[in-house]
Specification:
25 strands; 527 residues; eight-stranded parallel β-barrel; TIM Barrel; glycolysis; globular; kinase; M1 Pyruvate Kinase, Domain 3; transferase
Length: 527
C-alpha cells in the first residue's frame, strides 16, 4: 500500500500523474467537514455526502432557527443509519458577529464613490443610503479611514455580492462610509466585519448559550466551534458552561481564529482548546493578503506538534456555483494538506452551493493525491525532536508503533483505546496508513443510572487526520489481563478487510495494553 507514496523531493513520475484516482472506502486520510443547509439537508444529499467522504456535519447557528437545524439533524441520523458511516456533530456558534439587517428582503444596490450610513436603529428600512446593523457600539469602535467589509453568509470575496467601505465620519451612533466598489446585497442578513477593531461583545453570547443548552444538550453535540475566539479565557468560560450541561462535559471545544486578536493570543488559546479552526475568510480581511499563508503555515505547525486537530476553511469558494474548482483552489487544498491540516471545512460550498456532493468528492480526491507526496519521514523526525527526551510512556509507544508500521510496510495500525488518547497520539505522527481506532466503551454511573461511554470518543476522532474509529462491544476491555483479546481484534481486522484497507498476507501493527504494560505487535495475515 505504501509503495505508492512519493516524497516531494523525488521526481514525480508522469505515469502517476496520468493514473486515474482510485476510489476507496476511506476517500482520504484528511477529513472533510460539511456545513449542512438549504442545499444539503435532504436524506439523499446527506447520504451522498457521507459516501463521498464527509465525516463531520457542521450546523452554523449564525443563521437559521433551532427547528430548521433539528429537521436537518434528523435527516442526518437517517442518512448515518442507511449508509453505516459514522458522522460527528459540530455546533458552530454565532458569536459576536455584526450583521446588517434587511427586513424588506429587497436587493440593495450600492454604487462606488457614494456614501452610505450604518445605523444601530434596526427599525429603519435598509436602503442604498442607509444600512441598519445589530450593534450599538460601532461608532465608538471605529475612526476615519477604518475599513469595513459587508457580505452575505460567509464572505465570498466576489465584488458583485460583497462591498468594501471606508469610514468617512462618525455622527453620534451613526457611521458614515464611502463605498469603495459597486455591489448588490441580496437576502435578509449580511455579515459585517471591521478590520483590526475590537468589538466589545462576549464571545459566547446569550443566544449561543440558549442554543447550546437546548439544541446542543438534546443532540449531544461532539464538537463546539467557538466563533471569534480571542483569548484563552474564552475557551475556559465555554468549558465551564458546558461542564454544567450533563453529557456535554465531554464535548470538545475548537477555537475559531478569525481576527488579529485571536492571532495575537494564539499560543495561549492553543493550550486551552481541543482543536483549532482557521477562519480564513475573516482572517483574510484582518490580515494583509501576503501574510495569510504565513500564519496558516506557522499555526498548523504548532497544532501538529501539540497533536491537536487543525481545520482550514475557505478553500473552494468557486464550487458554490461551479462544478469544478479553479486551479488556484485545487492547489490551495493540496497545500493545506501538505502544511499539516487535519480537516478541510466546507462552508458556503455545501451550505448553499449548487454541487455539495461533487464538492466533497473533489476535495477528498485532491487531499488523497496530496497525501501521496506528504514527506512523512521529515515530519516524523520533526515531531520526535519537538517531543524531546525523556518521552512519556504513551508518546514512546505511539511513535514506536508508527515507526514499526512504516518499516514493515503495514497496511494499517489497529489501536485499542477507551479514552481515544492513545489513538490520537499515534495519528499525531502522521503514519502513511490508516489508524483503525477500536474504542472500547467503559461502564460509568452518576449514582442514578449506569451508562456506557465511548460513542463521544469515537465520533470526536472523525476530525483527526488518518484516524478511523469503530465502537467495540463493551464486553471486551481495552486493557486485557491475559493478552487474549482476540475476538475484538478479529472484529477490527474484519472491518479493515471489508473496507479494503487490509488484504490477505498484509502486515498489521496492533497497539494495546496488557495489564500494566503497553504492547506494540506486528501481525502477518494469512489468507
Amino acid at each position: 500500500m505504501n509503495s505508492n507514496h512519493l516524497l516531494l523531493e523525488e521526481p514525480i513520475r508522469m505515469a502517476s500523474i496520468l493514473e486515474p484516482s482510485k476510489p476507496s472506502f476511506f476517500p482520504a486520510m484528511t477529513k472533510i467537514v460539511g456545513t449542512l443547509g438549504p442545499k444539503s439537508r435532504s436524506v439523499e444529499i446527506i447520504s451522498d455526502c457521507l459516501k463521498a467522504g464527509m465525516s463531520v456535519a457542521r450546523f452554523d447557528f449564525s443563521w437559521g432557527d433551532i427547528e430548521f437545524h433539528q429537521e436537518t439533524l434528523e435527516n442526518l441520523k437517517t442518512a448515518v443509519k442507511s449508509t453505516r458511516k459514522l458522522c460527528a456533530i459540530m455546533l458552530d456558534t454565532g458569536g459576536p458577529e455584526l450583521q446588517v439587517v434587511n427586513k424588506t428582503e429587497h436587493p440593495i444596490s450600492l454604487e462606488a464613490d457614494t456614501k452610505v450610513i450604518l445605523t444601530p436603529d434596526q427599525d429603519k428600512p435598509a436602503t442604498s443610503n442607509l444600512l441598519p446593523i445589530n450593534y450599538h457600539g460601532l461608532s465608538k469602535a471605529v475612526k476615519k479611514g477604518d475599513t469595513i467589509f459587508i457580505g452575505q453568509y460567509l464572505f465570498t470575496g466576489n465584488e458583485t455580492t460583497s462591498v468594501w467601505l471606508e469610514v468617512d465620519e462618525v455622527c453620534s451612533e451613526d457611521v458614515v462610509c464611502l463605498i469603495k466598489n459597486s455591489a448588490t446585497l441580496s437576502g435578509t442578513l449580511y455579515t459585517l466585519h471591521v478590520s483590526q477593531i475590537r468589538i466589545d461583545m462576549p464571545t459566547l453570547t446569550d443566544k449561543d448559550k440558549e442554543v447550546i443548552s437546548t439544541w446542543g444538550v438534546r443532540n449531544n453535540i461532539d464538537i463546539l466551534s467557538l466563533s471569534y475566539t480571542r483569548h484563552a479565557e474564552d475557551i475556559r468560560h465555554a468549558r465551564c458552561f458546558l461542564s454544567k450541561l450533563g453529557e456535554l462535559n465531554q464535548t470538545q471545544i475548537f477555537a475559531k481564529i478569525e481576527n488579529i486578536e485571536g492571532l495575537t493570543h494564539f499560543d495561549e488559546i492553543l493550550q486551552e482548546a481541543d482543536g483549532i479552526i482557521f477562519s480564513r475568510g475573516n482572517l483574510g480581511i484582518d490580515l494583509p493578503p501576503e501574510k495569510v499563508f504565513l500564519f496558516q503555515k506557522a499555526a498548523l505547525y504548532k497544532c501538529n506538534m501539540m497533536g491537536k486537530p487543525a481545520v482550514v476553511t475557505r478553500v473552494v469558494d468557486s464550487m458554490t456555483d461551479n462544478l469544478r474548482p479553479t486551479r488556484a483552489e485545487a492547489t490551495d487544498v493540496a497545500n493545506a494538506v501538505l502544511d499539516g491540516s487535519d480537516a478541510i471545512l466546507l462552508g458556503a460550498e455545501t451550505l448553499r452551493g449548487l454541487y455539495p456532493v461533487e464538492t466533497v468528492s473533489t476535495v477528498g480526491k485532491i487531499c488523497a493525491e496530496a497525501e501521496k507526496v506528504f514527506n512523512q519521514d521529515l515530519y516524523f523526525k520533526k515531531t520526535v525532536k519537538n517531543v524531546g527526551e525523556p518521552m512519556s510512556h504513551l508518546e514512546s509507544i505511539a511513535s514506536s508503533a508508527v515507526r514499526a508500521a512504516i518499516k514493515v510496510k503495514a497496511s494499517a495500525i489497529i489501536c485499542f483505546t477507551s479514552s481515544g488518547r492513545a489513538a490520537r497520539l499515534i495519528a499525531k505522527y502522521r503514519p502513511t496508513m490508516p489508524v483503525i481506532s477500536v474504542v472500547i466503551p467503559r461502564l460509568k454511573t452518576n449514582q442514578l443510572r449506569w451508562t456506557f461511554s465511548g460513542a463521544f470518543e469515537a465520533r470526536q476522532s472523525l476530525i483527526v487526520r488518518g484516524l478511523f474509529p469503530m465502537l467495540a462491544d463493551p464486553r471486551h476491555p481495552a486493557e486485557s489481563k491475559s493478552g487474549s483479546n482476540e475476538s475484538v481484534l478479529k472484529v477490527a481486522l474484519d472491518h479493515g478487510k471489508a473496507s479494503g484497507v487490509i488484504k490477505p498476507h498484509d502486515r498489521v501493527v496492533v497497539c494495546q495494553k496488557l495489564g500494566d504494560a503497553s504492547v506494540v505487535k506486528i501481525l502477518e495475515l494469512e489468507d
